[in-house]
Design goal:
This protein is an alpha/beta fold. The chain folds into 3 domains: 1-125 and 327-414, 3-Layer(aba) Sandwich (Isopropylmalate Dehydrogenase); 140-157 and 198-313, Isopropylmalate Dehydrogenase (3-Layer(aba) Sandwich), CATH 3.40.718.10; 161-194, no CATH class. The protein has helices spanning 40-59, 74-80, 86-95, 114-121, 158-161, 170-181, 199-216, 231-249, 256-263, 279-288, 300-313, 351-363, 367-382, 388-391, 402-411, and strands at residues 3-4, 7-8, 17-19, 22-24, 30-34, 66-69, 97-100, 126-132, 148-154, 163-165, 192-194, 220-225, 253-255, 272-278, 295-298, 321-325, 330-334, 385-386, 398-399. Strands 6-5-7-17-16-8-9-15-12-14-13 form an 11-stranded mixed beta sheet, sandwiched between helices. The longest helix has 20 residues, at 40-59. The chain starts with a strand and ends with a helix. Bound molecules: NADP nicotinamide-adenine-dinucleotide phosphate (NAP). The site of NADP nicotinamide-adenine-dinucleotide phosphate has 16 residues, from loops. NADP nicotinamide-adenine-dinucleotide phosphate binds next to loops.
């Protein structure tokens, strides 16, 4: 019998398979989960009840998730003496779709971050962050309902994802000397970061974002870059993005110029608009004209800032789900951390992992279950039944525990 981390794979489930570039999802898919550290335990307990209830309600026993626990973070370290056992990675690879709670970043020991390691070893090149507002959630802007975007942030390149040399090291010195030999002035006491952006990584990300727009009926895909300053990396990202759109989706995409010159500013039925914005202007646009944007594609560092800025507009990280997705393998997660001071207190807001689960169901084509979850969360929050984090910001809220919040969501389904 197949097993990972000495835990047998449940016999009652089946593997999600990849056939002809598409996922084939059985009615009893085995989905690995990493519970997560700190509040991950509280959150997983609550979230898994919501997932099971949504699937049961949507498919009345015809479909069911067969959950399979895999280990990372403190739980893995305590059990196996390793922060990220190889078997955990292999199980995610084997079963294609997985979900995780937040993980503690080990201090020392050579691991930069478990999340980064997972992304790298599984080549999960797209960090996908949907950002939308749920009625009733306190927001710092007047019209939070106008922002409804899905951000595709490149995960494998750019200065943030990559190569840095500490000031004063021999390596930094060598790079400085090399740059000087090419005629660049670099102060000798500099630290160095290198920002590679490739055709390969740009095109596969933009391809994924355009396909997503087509699959979900979203009609604008915006390339966000700082190409006015970094011409050969960020500027090239924009150019390669347009090139890919033209080469592979020419029949269904329209540029802004074509929109005005050929269609009088009205996007024709069945087409999506592909445009671009300079990153600094985009930060203004998501505040001043949020409803003009829908799918955003961007290199790593811009995406890091923009995802959190957008999340703040609709109520913060407690409600922000995300996923790291490769060609097929996808790992869904909350974007917040382990919030350790609340661990095992049954108080934390589980919404982000619950919404990550809804994303996961959409990814495997279980749209009815996803819709039930999203509607029920919306209804629960609009009834002002919320955990402490939202209760402290809402007037007249009924503050409930993590577990009670999950129960309220389940009661609000359908
Ligand atoms: P954090 O765990 O996200 O917590 C920071 C604060 O954000 C909390 O104290 C709490 O604020 C609020 N918060 C976070 N999640 C919440 C939720 N679900 N419901 C309500 N409030 C929530 O960030 P951190 O303290 O910087 O990081 C702690 C650990 O998590 C570190 O080891 C870090 O490396 C790790 N981390 C992991 C991930 C991941 O696995 N994806 C991501 C980020 C950080 P109040 O105190 O104001 O209530």
């Amino acid at each position: 019998m197949l097993s990972f981390n000495n835990l047998p794979v449940p016999a009652e489930g089946e593997k999600i398979e990849i056939r002809e570039d598409r996922l084939y999802v059985p009615n009893r898919p085995i989905i690995p989960f990493i519970e997560g550290d700190g509040t991950g335990r509280d959150i997983w307990r609550a979230a898994s009840r919501v997932f099971n209830a949504a699937v049961e309600k949507a498919y009345r026993g015809e479909r069911r998730v067969v959950w399979y626990e895999v280990f990372a973070g403190e739980k893995a370290y305590n059990k196996f003496g390793e922060w990220l056992p190889r078997d955990t990675v292999e199980a995610i690879r084997e079963f294609t779709v997985a979900i995780k709670g937040p993980l503690t970043t080990p201090v020392g020991g050579g691991i930069r971050s478990l999340n980064v390691t997972l992304r790298q070893v599984l080549d999960l090149y797209a960090c996908v962050r949907p950002v939308r507002w749920y009625p009733g959630v306190p927001s710092p802007v007047k019209h939070p309902e106008k922002l409804d975007v899905v951000i595709f942030r490149e995960n494998t390149e750019d200065v943030y994802a990559g190569i840095e040399f500490r000031q004063g090291t021999e390596q930094a010195q060598k790079v400085i000397e090399f740059l000087r030999s090419l005629g660049y002035t670099v102060r000798p006491d500099s630290g160095i970061g290198i920002k590679p952006i490739s055709i390969f990584a740009t095109k596969r990300l933009v391809r994924k974002a355009i396909r997503y727009a087509l699959d979900t009926g979203r009609r604008v895909v915006t390339l966000v870059h700082k190409g006015n300053i970094m011409k050969f990396t960020e500027g090239a990202f924009r150019d390669w993005g347009y090139q890919l759109a033209q080469e592979e989706f020419g029949e269904v995409t329209v540029t802004e110029q074509e929109l005005w010159e050929q269609y009088g500013g009205k996007l024709p039925e069945g087409r999506i608009l592909i445009n671009d914005r300079i990153a600094d202007s985009m930060f203004q646009q998501v505040l001043t004209r949020p409803d003009e944007y829908s799918v955003i594609v961007t290199p790593n560092l811009n995406g890091d800032y923009l995802s959190d800025a957008c999340a703040a507009q609709v109520g913060g990280l407690g409600l922000a789900p995300g996923a790291n997705i490769g060609d097929h393998i996808a790992l869904f997660e909350a974007t917040h951390g382990t919030a350790p001071k609340y661990a095992d207190k049954d108080v934390i807001n589980p919404s982000a992992v619950i919404l990550a689960g809804a994303m996961m169901f959409e990814y495997i084509g279980w749209h009815e279950a996803a819709a039930l979850i999203k509607e029920a969360i919306g209804r629960t929050i609009s009834q002002k039944t919320v955990t402490y984090d939202l209760a402290r910001l809402m007037e007249g809220a009924r503050q409930v525990k993590t577990s009670e919040f999950a129960t309220a969501i389940i009661e609000n389904m359908g």
